[in-house]
């Protein structure tokens, strides 16, 4: 059966372009939270109970690839489930969202799922200053060593993704995020279907990639409940060097109605991920060794020679320059369990509400084989040790809200509370001088040196109140405010070396970020059936990070004592003015924005990343950003469409960095790190119901990785190709089957994908700071899916 969207022009005038859903996704309807996340003017039809043969696109309508937020009072776009499913299974949804205006997403692996290199920047704000939710559940700041959440790839299998909504300027008042200075991304999971069905899929491809997936939908049970359970295993070699990237994951979702007015939704997720890292590179290394330079995991003897040369001051092997040219190995390990229960209820025809309880636990390690510390002779005697950063998250929270309609007003009230306990430690584990260590496994219980360890508690309290006032049929006003309080506390514990205490080097203490009035106001005016304008203003605050590797607690005790006296939470004021056009063949939007970013906390990395030194933090004042986002979607011929987006961003630091009253870094007027001034995307698509395909070009302007802008990586343009076929036959074997081929980096461009993997520095005139990740070369993947009724 086909997932359908009505082809209609409603009050806001939105037009949803037609395209045909993959047979694999036919039985999946967006969850209620998905429908809430999408623009309210986009009606959604329920899936029909009977599977039909796919029809030509003019005859059969389906969900749009991109909906440009018609009727909304701020810039917003929703990317359909179909757009996500057209990518290689296992691909991060961020990669699909990266074609939207103002969004820059990079990763050094072809699927965008390798977390160490994941980088998303929107209008100059990186992921630590953006909000992320899944079915309304907070995912945290999505930093690599996340202290308050998990990545979307570990929270939800890509096959179970529903529509994803991006709000570039500021998230809605009720978004459960304490750091959404620059916008919010809201992901959704699909609902179980009312019809029994089994979906299976397999993917093979470059770098020995293989992925298997299976999902069982129960169909409607006695009593009206329904559920699905799914599981996938993904295994791939690195595209260069030696190592693997492996993930096992399971999802389950259950929906139970209680009469006509109450519904219970329960969701559970488990994920275990193990991934060997790619080498962080510098411009000088790329120039000398090329993009394929990587960890030497298969050559333990050479790694020991390098470490011995560094520790004894003797000559390095001729193939390397110093101890940081290559490392033996590095890896990331994460195991998560997350779940929620949500109760939706209609108290009256005017009053509706919901309440959600959720929990999340995480155990994680970032492992690095380091030449900077040798294993004691009594424990193995290798000149190398395994250095880990270890994580342990236990968080629980509640979210709730009420919506009341009266006259021309819809009043919304809601709350969010979360209690998060986080533990973090830096430990060293022994290695034997003989033999080769395992390339990737959990290190537990036999560390000989704990450099530091800390426990953190973060309590978040948020309430909001807002109103949507339909002043007249063509004019809508939204306004309201939220209040946010986040209390952070840290307790640094003494480290120890082989049982002997070594003292504490990191700070203990508490911080609080609070603001009782964070207002938002926006208006949408429909000029006529095809044209509308909108404007909005939002003020937001970001809470402090509670971690030893980011935020105020990542500096030295002395540095924290200085900061604590004058530290203020980061704030942003965002203003937008936009225009949208839509008819039956064309939709477009143009948005201009002005952002003031206040009390920016700047972190400067000290030394190379593997050393793990405390960063130097400073309140560097403000950043001012001005820019324009443009997007257009054109159905220019039968079965053919063209999507294009362009973004110009001019984000500049307002102040120099001072230390003891003296300028330590002249960054005033310099561009913010990591964000290109120009981004462009062009996608040509074809879909006749059976054959479909698209080719996407993504352009990124040059990006700086130093605050003084004396070092940057050049611009790049990358092409990706996706093609597929939906079998139309009623034959039992072919019915419900489809196949697709995905080619990433079609023209095999060599380029720098991620900048800032090891942070940013004030200056790098010699190009030796290792904080760059090389982009993957051309890679090809083949997927076949089958749905059983």
TrEMBL record:
Membrane topology annotation: Multi-pass membrane protein
Query: Where is it predominantly found?
Result: membrane
Q: Which UniProt keywords apply?
A: Cell outer membrane, Ion transport, Iron, Iron transport, Membrane, Receptor, Signal, TonB box, Transmembrane, Transmembrane beta strand, Transport
This protein's record includes keyword Protease: no
Any single Gene Ontology cellular-component annotation: cell outer membrane
Record's subcellular location: Cell outer membrane
Q: Where is the TonB-dependent receptor-like beta-barrel domain?
A: 288-746
Which molecular function GO terms apply here? siderophore uptake transmembrane transporter activity
Provide the leader sequence positions. 1-25
Q: Which PROSITE patterns match?
A: TONB_DEPENDENT_REC_3
What superkingdom heads the lineage?
A: Bacteria
Q: Which Pfam families match?
A: Plug, TonB_dep_Rec_b-barrel
Residue ranges occupied by any TonB-dependent receptor plug domain in the UniProt entry: 74-173
Q: Record's family?
A: Belongs to the TonB-dependent receptor family.
Name of protein: TonB-dependent receptor
Q: Which organism is it from?
A: Gluconobacter cerinus
């Amino acid at each position: 059966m086909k997932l359908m969207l009505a082809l209609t022009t409603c009050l806001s005038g939105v037009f949803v372009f037609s395209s045909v859903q993959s047979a694999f996704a036919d039985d999946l309807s967006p969850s209620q939270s998905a429908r809430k996340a999408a623009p309210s003017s986009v009606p959604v039809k329920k899936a029909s109970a009977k599977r039909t043969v796919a029809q030509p696109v003019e005859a059969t309508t389906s969900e749009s690839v991109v909906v440009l937020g018609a009727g909304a009072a701020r810039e917003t776009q929703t990317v359909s489930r179909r757009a996500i499913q057209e990518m290689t299974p296992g691909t991060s949804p961020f990669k699909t969202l990266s074609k939207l205006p103002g969004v820059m997403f990079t990763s050094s692996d072809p699927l965008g799922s390798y977390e160490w290199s994941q980088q998303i920047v929107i209008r100059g704000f990186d992921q630590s200053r953006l909000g992320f939710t899944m079915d309304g559940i907070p995912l945290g700041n999505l930093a690599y060593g996340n202290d308050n959440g998990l990545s979307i790839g570990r929270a939800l299998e890509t096959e179970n993704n529903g529509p994803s909504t991006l709000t570039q300027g500021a998230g809605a008042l009720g978004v459960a995020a304490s750091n959404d200075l620059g916008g919010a991304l809201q992901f959704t999971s699909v609902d179980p279907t009312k019809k029994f069905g089994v979906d299976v899929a397999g993917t093979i491809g470059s770098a020995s990639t293989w992925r298997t997936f299976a999902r069982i939908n129960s169909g409607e049970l006695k009593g009206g409940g329904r559920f699905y359970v799914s599981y996938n295993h993904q295994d791939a070699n690195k595209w260069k060097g030696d190592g693997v990237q492996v993930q096992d994951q399971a999802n389950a979702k259950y929906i139970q109605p209680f009469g006509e007015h109450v519904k219970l939704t329960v969701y559970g997720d488990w994920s275990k991920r193990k991934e060997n890292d790619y080498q962080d590179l510098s411009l000088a290394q790329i120039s000398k060794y090329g993009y394929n330079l990587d960890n030497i995991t298969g050559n333990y003897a050479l790694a020991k020679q390098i470490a011995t040369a560094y520790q004894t001051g003797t000559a390095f092997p001729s193939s390397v320059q110093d101890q940081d040219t290559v490392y033996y190995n590095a890896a990331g390990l994460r195991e998560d369990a997350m779940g929620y229960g949500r109760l939706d209820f209609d108290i009256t025809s005017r009053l509706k509400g919901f309440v959600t309880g959720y929990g999340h636990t995480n155990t994680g390690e970032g492992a690095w084989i380091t030449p900077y510390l040798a294993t004691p002779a009594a424990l193995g005697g290798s000149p190398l040790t395994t250095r880990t950063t270890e994580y342990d998250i236990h968080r629980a929270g509640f979210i709730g809200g009420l919506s009341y309609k009266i006259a021309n007003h819809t009043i919304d009230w809601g709350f969010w509370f979360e209690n998060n306990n986080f533990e973090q430690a830096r430990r060293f584990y022994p290695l034997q001088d003989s033999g080769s260590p395992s390339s990737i496994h959990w290190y537990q219980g036999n560390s000989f040196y704990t450099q530091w360890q800390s426990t953190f508690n973060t309590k978040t309290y948020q309430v909001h109140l807002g109103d949507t006032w339909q002043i007249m049929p063509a004019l809508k006003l939204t306004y309201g405010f939220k209040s946010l309080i986040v209390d952070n506390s840290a307790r640094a514990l003494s480290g120890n070396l082989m049982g002997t205490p070594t003292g504490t080097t990191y700070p203990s203490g508490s911080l609080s970020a609070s603001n009782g009035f964070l207002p938002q106001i926006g208006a949408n005016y429909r000029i006529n059936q095809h044209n509308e304008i909108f404007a909005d203003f939002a003020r937001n605050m970001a809470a402090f990070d509670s971690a030893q590797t980011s935020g105020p607690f990542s500096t030295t005790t002395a540095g924290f004592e200085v900061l604590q006296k004058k530290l203020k939470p980061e704030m942003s004021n965002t203003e937008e003015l936009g225009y949208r056009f839509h008819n039956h063949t064309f939709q477009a939007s143009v948005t201009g924005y002005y952002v003031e970013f206040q009390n920016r906390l700047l972190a400067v990395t000290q030394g190379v990343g593997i050393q793990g030194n405390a960063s130097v933090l400073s309140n560097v004042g403000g950043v001012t950003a001005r820019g324009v986002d443009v997007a257009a979607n054109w159905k220019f011929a039968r079965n053919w469409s063209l999507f294009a987006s362009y973004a110009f961003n001019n984000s500049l630091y307002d102040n120099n960095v001072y230390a003891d009253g003296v300028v330590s870094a002249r960054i005033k007027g310099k561009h913010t790190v990591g964000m290109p001034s120009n981004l462009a995307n062009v996608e040509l698509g074809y879909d006749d119901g059976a054959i479909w395909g698209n080719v996407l070009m993504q352009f990124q302007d040059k990006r700086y990785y130093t605050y003084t802008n004396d070092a940057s990586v050049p611009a790049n343009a990358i092409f990706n190709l996706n093609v597929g076929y939906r079998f139309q036959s009623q034959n039992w074997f072919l019915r419900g089957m489809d196949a697709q081929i995905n080619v990433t980096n079609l023209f095999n461009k060599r380029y720098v994908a991620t900048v800032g993997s090891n942070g940013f520095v004030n200056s790098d005139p010699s190009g030796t700071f290792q904080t760059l990740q090389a982009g993957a070369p051309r890679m090809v993947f083949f997927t076949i899916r089958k749905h059983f009724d």
